[in-house]
Design brief:
415 residues; globular
C-alpha cells in the first residue's frame, strides 16, 4: 500500500465511525436503538438493504466464483424481485400491524414458546456464521494488499464495527450502510474499467477470452436434474432463501419498523432489490474479466495459488489484482469498498441480534414477559451488541483455515 491508499482508507474508516458517534445522541433509548423511532425514509432503508446484500461474500466470493466457474450463481440474484413482490404485498403489513419489533413473537402466539425460542436460536447461529464468513472475506482482501496478519485484521475489523454499532444503534447502521452501498458500487465500476483497460488485447480481447471458455453461461437448464446447480435449482434455492430473508429475518423485519410508513417500508424493499440485481451482475463481470486478465499471466496465477496455501485460491484473485495492478489512491478506494462490504452486513447482524436478545431471550425467558425498564433494556442491548461482536469475531478466527470458497462456506453454514 502506498501513502495515498492509506490516506483514502483511513479517511473512510474515520467517516464511518464518525457517523456512529453522530447518531449516538439518538440511540440513548431502547426505541431509538432498535428502530430509530420509526422515522426513517424508504430510500435510505432501501440503500441500507442493498448494502446489507453486498457483503464481502459478494465482493470477494462472487468474483472468485465467476473466475473459477460461470454465472450460474447469478440466478440467485434473479430470484430476489420475485421474493420482494411477495414480501411487499404480505410481510410488511403483517409485521407493522402486529407491532412487535421481534420477528419471532408471533410464533409463540401461534405455536407456543418452544417455536419462538427455536427460531431465535437458529437466527442467532446464522448471524454468527454470516459475521464470521464476512469478516474472513474482508481480512483475506486486506491481507493480500497490506501484508498485515490475517488474525489481526479480523480482530481490528470486529472491534471497529462493534464500536460504531454500539454507539449509534440502528440509525447509524442504516445510514452507514447507505454510504457504504455507494462506495461499493463505485469500487466495482472502477475495477471493471481498469480490467478492461489493462487487458493486453483491450476490452474486445477480454470478452472474447471469456466467451471462448463459456464463462457467461448460467448453467444447465435441464428441469429434471435436481442433483446439481442447474438454473432451476439455484432459482428455487434463491427464492426460498430470500423469502426467509424478507419474511422471518430480524435484519429485515426490524427495518420495516424503522420506516416512517408502510408505503416507505415497501418502497425500501423494491429499491434494495432493483439496485442489487444489476450491481451483483457487476461483481460477476469482475470475476469473468479477472479470468481473462490472468489467462495471459500464468506465472502470476501460480504465485497466487502458492500464496493462498490451503485456502481456495479463487478468493485471492481479486485481492491480488488490487495489490499489484491498481494505481495509487484507487487501491485505497477499493479497500474502502471492501471494508464497506463487510461493515454493511456485520453492523446489521449485531444490532438485530442484540434486539432479539433483549426481546426474546431476556424479556421472555429471564423476565418472563414482565416489563423491562429503560435503563435495564439499554444495558442488555449494549452488552448483547458487544457479546455478539466477540462471538462473531471469534468464529471468524476459527474459519481462517477453511479451504473452501467463501460463498460456498456461507451457503453451507446457512443451510
Amino acid at each position: 500500500m502506498r501513502t495515498a491508499d492509506h490516506l483514502v482508507l483511513l479517511v473512510y474508516l474515520a467517516v464511518v465511525v464518525g457517523v456512529g458517534c453522530w447518531f449516538a445522541r439518538r440511540s440513548g433509548s431502547a426505541d431509538g436503538f432498535m428502530k430509530a423511532g420509526g422515522r426513517l425514509p424508504g430510500w435510505v432503508i432501501g440503500l441500507s438493504l442493498f448494502g446489507t446484500y453486498l457483503s464481502s461474500n459478494t465482493f470477494i466470493g462472487v468474483p472468485g466464483k465467476a473466475y473459477g466457474g460461470n454465472w450460474n450463481a447469478f440466478v440467485f440474484s434473479l430470484s430476489i424481485p420475485i421474493a420482494v413482490f411477495i414480501a411487499a404485498r404480505f410481510f410488511v403489513r403483517f409485521y407493522r400491524e402486529g407491532g412487535a419489533i421481534s420477528a419471532y413473537q408471533h410464533l409463540e402466539e401461534r405455536f407456543g414458546l418452544w417455536a419462538r425460542i427455536y427460531a431465535v436460536i437458529c437466527y442467532l447461529l446464522t448471524q454468527v456464521a454470516r459475521t464470521a464468513t464476512i469478516m474472513l472475506g474482508v481480512a483475506i482482501g486486506l491481507q493480500q494488499v497490506t501484508g498485515w496478519n490475517l488474525e489481526t485484521i479480523i480482530l481490528a475489523s470486529g472491534l471497529l464495527v462493534t464500536l460504531y454499532t454500539l454507539l449509534g444503534g440502528i440509525e447509524a447502521v442504516i445510514w452507514t450502510d447507505a454510504i457504504q452501498s455507494v462506495v461499493l458500487t463505485l469500487g466495482a465500476l472502477l475495477v471493471i474499467g481498469i480490467l478492461l483497460f489493462a487487458h493486453p488485447d483491450g476490452a474486445s480481447g477480454a470478452f472474447a477470452t471469456a466467451f471462448d471458455q463459456d464463462k457467461f453461461s448460467l448453467g444447465s437448464w435441464d428441469p429434471a436434474d435436481l442433483a446439481t446447480s442447474t438454473v432451476w435449482v439455484v432459482l428455487l434455492y434463491g427464492l426460498f432463501i430470500n423469502l426467509t430473508n424478507f419474511g422471518i429475518d430480524q435484519n429485515y423485519v426490524q427495518r420495516y419498523h424503522a420506516a416512517r410508513s408502510e408505503a416507505a417500508a415497501r418502497r425500501s424493499l423494491w429499491i434494495g432489490a432493483l439496485l442489487y440485481v444489476p450491481v451483483s451482475l457487476l461483481f460477476f463481470l469482475v470475476g469473468t474479466l479477472l479470468f481473462s486478465f490472468y489467462e495471459a499471466r500464468p506465472d502470476e496465477v501460480a504465485a497466487i495459488r502458492e500464496m493462498a496455501g490451503d485456502r481456495k485460491f479463487e478468493d485471492s484473485i481479486l485481492p491480488h489484482f488490487m495489490a499489484h495492478h491498481l494505481p495509487p489512491g484507487v487501491g485505497g478506494l477499493i479497500l474502502a469498498a471492501l471494508a464497506a462490504a463487510a461493515m454493511s452486513t456485520i453492523d446489521t447482524s449485531l444490532n438485530s441480534s442484540a434486539t432479539i436478545t433483549l426481546k426474546d431471550l431476556w424479556g421472555r425467558l429471564v423476565r418472563r414477559g414482565k416489563s423491562v425498564d429503560e435503563e435495564e433494556a439499554m444495558k442488555v442491548l449494549r452488552i448483547a451488541t458487544v457479546g455478539w461482536g466477540l462471538v462473531g469475531t471469534g468464529s471468524a478466527l476459527l474459519l481462517t483455515g477453511n479451504a473452501k470458497n467463501i460463498l460456498d462456506t456461507w451457503w453451507q453454514l446457512s443451510g
